[in-house]
Amino acid sequence: MATYTPPPGTADIFADEARRWRNLENTAAAVFSRYGYGELRTPIFEYTEVFQKGLGNETEVVQKEMYTFEDRGGRSLTLRPEGTAGVMRALSGTDVMNGVEHRVYYYGPMFRGERPAAGRRRQFHQVGVENVGRVAPLIDAECIAMLIDYLNAIGITDAHLAINTRGVMEDRAPAGKLLTDYFSRHIDHMCDDCKARLERNVWRILDCKQEACRRIVADAPDYVASFSDSSRAYFAEVCAALDALGVEYTVDPLLVRGLDYYVHTVFEVTHGGLGAQTAIAGGGRYELFLPGQKKPVPGVGFAAGMERLLMVQDALGIAGAPAPVLPVYLVGLGSAARLANLKLAGELRRAGVRVELELEERSFKAQLRNVNKSGALLAVIRGDSELERGVAVVKTMANGEQVELKDSELAGYLTDFARKL
Ligand code: HAM
Q1: C-alpha–C-alpha distance, residues 252 and 221, integer Å
Q2: Residue whose CA is at the smallest distance from ligand 1 atom 2
């Protein structure tokens, strides 16, 4: 049979898989709420300038990967490529400008026009958090520790955390010059992308994956040493707090992250079980301009790619929860019995019992086949003669035992049975 597949880089998620997604979401809600975070749901599309301004016009995401379209009034809209900018736009209507801290978490689909590959989708899903309004090294450390808590809670206990500092905006120019001077001397031996980066954003040279470039990057000057004392002290405090919390990490001066809004702490979590796309989560401290504001608002946060979390769980052999057992299947022979079953099913469902039943006219044999397929523990069977006598046969599927119950006992019996499972 021909299949009609969804667009490249998107996927349908059926029930068995969706249960695993639900588990990632529920665990996120449980862990993050213990840290005082509340859920925020923002629109899936925003005015394009929210991302242009928020992420920076020079970032690869904004330049090449956004899904942008016009609304009916001719205003440019964009499907959100990440969560931070929309969260900040939403918070712009709150007291966050007065230094009041907001802790929010979110999950949902994000959209980037990337080349699809394993672990790289055009519609992918993130679970993320933002802690907005305050600046302190301990806030950064707490945020990172919470990410590790979350990963542990979903069974990912062997991921690798890398951290680095980007300093503050004033540190950028002198450090950038140091790097520009160094790479200018070697640029003839570097890839075309790096040649362009030298002009546009020298920092991105640091995470070039080309072997020749990596060799040159390995000898790049220690730009963090050129940061101000206070920036370096900030980072030292983050590291000391992580040490105190027992969070393991490596400091990686080549970690700069792809989005322009970062200052101070940046971090990324990788896992070997992923193949080429090794980052399962990334984040850091940032300063973002809220619409209409002259002063940037500080925050720290992260996002984890849910498809990638599932891939790591697969690699670790962490299976999703099995489908819940079905306690009861109602078999009806004749239209009066089917209607009685539909009524009973409603009563049981309102009492919290999962029930399936046959609503069309089917032979007894066909209905029993469906009972077996459904994995139901009990089958309730009735036809015209049982209806007349006000009884039904309850069959235990595992051993074939049957009992006859009065109609008036049926709902209570089945509800008790389901509760004990
Ligand atoms: P990001 O590093 O661009 O950061 O994305 C975070 C995570 O989303 C990645 O580590 C990866 O797991 C997942 N991801 C990104 N692109 C794709 C894709 N095309 N397919 C599958 N998964 C993907 C951010 O988005 C920032 N907003 C994180 C943040 C929050 N920083 C501060 N607060």
Answers
A1: 14
A2: 282
Q: Whose CA is nearest to atom 4 of ligand 1?
A: 282
Please say whether the beta carbons of 28 and 281 come within 8 A. Answer: no
**Residue that wins the pLDDT comparison between 3 and 246:** 246
CATH number for the domain that contains residue 126: 3.30.930.10
The residues near 174 (Cβ < 8 Å, ≥ 6 apart) are 226
Residue 180 in tokens: 């520009």
Q: Domain for residue 91, yes or no?
A: yes
Q: Are residues 43 and 150 in the same domain?
A: yes
State in Å: Cα 257 to ligand 1 middle: 10
> What is the Rg, in whole angstroms, of the alpha carbon atoms belonging to the chain?
28
Instruction: Tell whether 321 is covered by a domain.
Output: no
Query: DSSP secondary structure string, 5-19?
Result: PPPTT-----HHHHH
Instruction: Assess whether 289 and 356 both reside in one domain.
Output: no
In this structure, the residues whose C-beta lies within 6 A of any atom of ligand 1 are 82-84, 112, 114, 119-121, 124, 126, 128, 130, 258, 279-284, 286, 301-305, 307-308
Q: What is the pLDDT of residues 24-70, one digit of tens each?
A: 999 999 999 999 999 999 999 999 999 998 888 878 899 899 999 99
- What would the pLDDT profile of 279-290 be if each residue is shown by its tens digit? 999 999 999 887
CA atoms within 13 A on the CB side of 353: 28
State whether 346 and 281 are in the same domain.
Answer: no
pTM (2 d.p.): 0.94
| Cα 269 to Cα 258: distance, rounded to the nearest angstrom | 14
Tell whether 408 and 388 lie within a shared domain: yes
